[in-house]
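Need a sequence for this fold. Nothing fancy.
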């Protein structure tokens, strides 16, 4: 940003980097940087008003950040209304994020597939994120059939991503179907050129449940070595599981 103060992309990436750091540290530890994250995304939109990526990042900041540190449904709606003036499909997807934030996954699920994203990368990325949010919400609430339906839709719409197979594996794992989960996690792993930390961790969990100790140990170690890595909680759990398997 210092070298290229007029480049919207630089502001976007600065905001993403600060946001990633904030999520890793926890909301209370990150309070001091919240306004800087918001300002980076706002500045990115100011520098390139037609940047859909910058607009979606700003909208998600407002919908995902607690109100006491800067989140705002009204501000998110302003971003949506302003964006819909020149890109109606982006506006539809933004409404999907608002429905998710309002804990209405069914409405978000209806909106996301209906948007005509074509080959626009920013629209496709955000359509995928909405569907992932919907499927994850169903999974969290143990609505396994609904979660599986959306993860299968992700698998079909985005075959180049491991998310669909990984999500289906999580559904099986949560229901204690570890053999089926292993097959799906292995499929997810085969899609990406480098190991994904979360995929390897969940693969290890099911392998351990099946009594495959050597395989589970290898998967946990891959999970800890992968970049980007596990969050702090899962990393600690993986380390504890490795100790237990080696004892």
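Here you go.
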């Amino acid at each position: 940003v210092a070298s290229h103060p007029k480049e919207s992309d630089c502001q976007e990436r600065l905001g993403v980097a600060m946001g990633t750091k904030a999520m890793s540290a926890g909301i209370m530890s990150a309070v001091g940087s919240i306004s800087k994250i918001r300002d980076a995304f706002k500045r990115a939109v100011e520098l390139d008003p037609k940047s859909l990526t910058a607009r979606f990042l700003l909208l998600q900041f407002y919908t995902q950040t607690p109100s006491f540190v800067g989140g705002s449904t009204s501000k998110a709606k302003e971003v949506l209304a302003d964006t819909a003036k020149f890109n109606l499909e982006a506006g539809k997807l933004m409404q999907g994020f608002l429905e998710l934030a309002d804990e209405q996954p069914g409405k978000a699920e209806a909106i996301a597939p209906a948007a005509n994203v074509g080959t626009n990368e920013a629209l496709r990325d955000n359509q995928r994120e909405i569907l992932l949010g919907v499927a994850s919400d169903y999974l969290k609430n143990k609505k396994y059939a609904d979660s599986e339906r959306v993860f299968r839709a992700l698998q079909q719409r985005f075959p180049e991503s491991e998310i669909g197979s990984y999500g289906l594996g999580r559904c099986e794992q949560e229901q204690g179907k570890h053999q089926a989960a292993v097959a799906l996690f292995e499929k997810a792993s085969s899609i990406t050129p480098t190991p994904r930390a979360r995929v390897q961790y969940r693969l290890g969990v099911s392998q351990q449940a099946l009594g495959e100790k050597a395989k589970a140990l290898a998967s946990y170690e891959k999970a800890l070595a992968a970049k980007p890595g596990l969050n702090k909680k899962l990393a600690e759990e993986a380390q504890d599981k490795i100790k237990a398997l080696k004892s």
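For context: The two ends are 50 Å apart (CA to CA).
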